[in-house]
Design goal:
The chain is mainly α. The protein is about 65% helix and about 0% strand. It is elongated. This is Protein translocase subunit SecE.
Length: about 70
Amino acid sequence: MEKPIKTPKLKKTRKKKYYFRLFIKEMKRVKWPSGRVTFKSFGQSLLFSTIFMFVFFAVTVIAALIWNQAGVGI
């Protein structure tokens, strides 16, 4: 009776995941805008949001007035 030949078990090598390192590397590649451009974009966003808020408020008030005139009531 022969003994079975033992083959050495191969260890599975996992590919290393360098998520944090790759994230930092990508952040360094990005061309970030200057402070002036950033502030200007922020101002435009704030202005748009304010105007949109007032338009939405006006539409809501007008709709409420129409509903009250129709007798539906809110």
